[in-house]
Amino acid sequence: MIGTGNIADGRHLPALQDAPDVEIVAAVDVDEDRARDCAAKWGIPASYSDVETMLTREQPDLVVICTPPALHREQAVAALRAGAWVLCEKPPCRSLAEYDEIAAAEGSDQTQAAEGDCHASAAEGDGHSPAGPYAAFVFQHRFGSGAEHARSLISQGRLGAPYVALCQTTWYRDDAYYAVPWRGRWDTEGGGPAMGHGIHQVDLLLELMGDWVEVRAMAGRLARDVQTEDVSTALVHFTSGAMGSVINSVLSPQEASRIRVDLADATVELAHVYGYTNDDWTYTPARHVTAEQAEGWGTPTTDETGSHAGQLASLLADMRAGRRPRCSGVDGRRSLEFTTAMYKAAVTGRPVRAGEIVEGDPFYTDPSGGRTDWTLAAQSTG
């Protein structure tokens, strides 16, 4: 466990401790006392203040990264090169360039030789060495039973063609929240609420709606003393022809996380704040749909929340099978590309096409495009 703050203590460590056949061997934090306190609290045998030292001594199978975004690329690459798989908190990193560096440090998609006995044991019984290592990123909302059920129905066409999508992450973060030195800065976070908060709902939206073609956007810094935005909105055109809107805010007293998809035969809605159960999903049949048809859509067989534990279980199964996990590679990159495109659209005041932000584009290495006047530019050209 690299980084022993709130998200590690509140989400990841409980999930790891409850997972079968998992031993937590080390806690790492730049603050030696905090690493030591974490290790004592969770019964972890070793604590470190240096990532490379931990990797050399412990040779872990899996490294979980819960540090600020500015450290994700360096720590993920180090872990991968040491032969460890990675589960890294969102956002994956600060830019598409950093993401591609992480991906370049992964192992082959083809079967490759394991490094050391600890890695060979991950594929025990498979008859081959595991592929990888791979880096996956925390987009846990995909892994709830409600999301899996909705994705299955939509992808199979059982609810008809998609037409309209709404994606809302309207949360509240006060000035004290941004008093933490690394928050609200392009160089340390890679963006504001679109990158650090709304990316969860955007990832789930793309999981349900599929690929996008074009995005137009606006962003503003309306109330918080930050370098990034505190509010953003976007219009999206999907490959299917459907259209959607996305809104992100940290200025909203009534907090809400919502996704709504209108299809030919039904409206699918998810309403929650920081996590959901099956009860937070609603299906409204179109007027022409019979009760018998709607009943045929079924319901999830389990009630799994979109939790860190759910994604961890999926990742561990992939490790043992030696296959690329979900939320990695191209699959893990898409919400970061969308968010970067939204920023580019807001800064430049023009539509951005999927796939256009590549090496040589200033937004490839910096989601602000290196512009310090980005809010004014967006307002004057909008």
TrEMBL record:
Query: InterPro entries annotated for this entry?
Result: Gfo/Idh/MocA-like_OxRdtase_N, Gfo/Idh/MocA_Oxidoreductase, GFO_IDH_MocA-like_dom, NAD(P)-bd_dom_sf
Q: Which Gene3D superfamilies match?
A: Dihydrodipicolinate Reductase, domain 2, NAD(P)-binding Rossmann-like Domain
Q: Which residues form the signal peptide?
A: none
Q: Where is this region: Disordered?
A: 107-127
- Residues covered by the GFO/IDH/MocA-like oxidoreductase domain: 149-264
One GO molecular function term? nucleotide binding
Q: Where is the Gfo/Idh/MocA-like oxidoreductase N-terminal domain?
A: 1-109
User: Which Pfam families does this entry report, sorted A to Z?
Assistant: GFO_IDH_MocA, GFO_IDH_MocA_C3
Q: Which PANTHER family match?
A: D-GLUCOSIDE 3-DEHYDROGENASE (PTHR43249:SF1), UDP-N-ACETYL-2-AMINO-2-DEOXY-D-GLUCURONATE OXIDASE (PTHR43249)
**Which named protein is this?**
Dehydrogenase
Organism from which the protein derives? Actinoalloteichus fjordicus
